[in-house]
Fold Aspartic proteinase nepenthesin-1.
Amino acid sequence: MNNTKSPFLLLLLLLHLFSISTAKSHIPSNCNPAADRSSTLQVFHIFSPCSPFRPSKPLSWADNVLQMQAKDQARLQFLSSLVARRSFVPIASARQLIQSPTFVVRAKIGTPAQTLLLALDTSNDAAWIPCSGCIGCPSTTVFSSDKSSSFRPLPCQSPQCNQVPNPSCSGSACGFNLTYGSSTVAADLVQDNLTLATDSVPSYTFGCIRKATGSSVPPQGLLGLGRGPLSLLGQSQSLYQSTFSYCLPSFKSVNFSGSLRLGPVAQPIRIKYTPLLRNPRRSSLYYVNLISIRVGRKIVDIPPSALAFNSATGAGTVIDSGTTFTRLVAPAYTAVRDEFRRRVGRNVTVSSLGGFDTCYTVPIISPTITFMFAGMNVTLPPDNFLIHSTAGSTTCLAMAAAPDNVNSVLNVIASMQQQNHRILFDIPNSRVGVARESCSS
């Protein structure tokens, strides 16, 4: 299959256009919150014209790739820490989402409602939001809790206070502290009304950040879509029945927007499923049974231990919205990479870029890559696993081995490999569905 034009070529072109046109009148009309309707929300990439988090000036292609890889490294360390210990699910997400969210949705908090952009995170439970008066939080993205008549702090004796990390009491209010990277965060556990599209979730519990120090200051809030009690699913059982799907947009989309569909209504009927696995060490993560991987027509030789699910160690495969590029444990990645190189051609020179070790400076014909899960196969087109430089002179396999300094038994199916697919999380029936869909609007 011949390579098509790179999504990254279009991405960097659009970033250039963004940098020379910042007037609000140039924001597309579909950025209007009215585009969120029923139980469906638009999902924006941070580079969308609708996103205030887009870069003020474009990066070079190489710098852009290297920066995303560095953020993925922090994300993988975070995911590894989740499976490596028994602890409460942290309110804050990984540094990758805190410093630069990948996908965001609109949400309304309070009475009267204030519109905020919250980052999607399927590997965390609770929401957190920078609040008014926060020391060290960006002043343009805080929630003005003092202007909401329905806002209330939760007392120390509330059951939710036992579900946050490092709970503490200042007077009668439940507080907690987090440390990550070079930053620390102090927050209160609070409740207020949450509105998503036209749906209302009254008395929604979240972390209200009051102080942030260090270089990893969070620019926006977070919406946790994990399976724990403080997640959106846990707090909206009667409304959404623990069911949601998302379709992550391709960088080829002019507006970089996909969708988040909440609840069982209007979910796809023609869709393939694989069972969800539950890890008691980290019950919020979405584990699936990845059995094997096919490159072209060949199922590559991967040791079963590299893919096997093990609840005692945290080993296995997770689907994660916050990691950009899929990471496989070293034996699995090496097998996939070597077969990919063989099919591209042994006489073609291979180079590297940052964490990517399979790059080419000449045009190539790429095989497909198929993830073979229990009950379903997902065959990816080249746009889901190849990245190209702006000039088209360099092409890289956009997967990598799990880094040595994180849990070496965790495979992560990341957002680039998910784009232009509808990913359906059906918790009551303990399954995940995948269907091809043009997600961009």
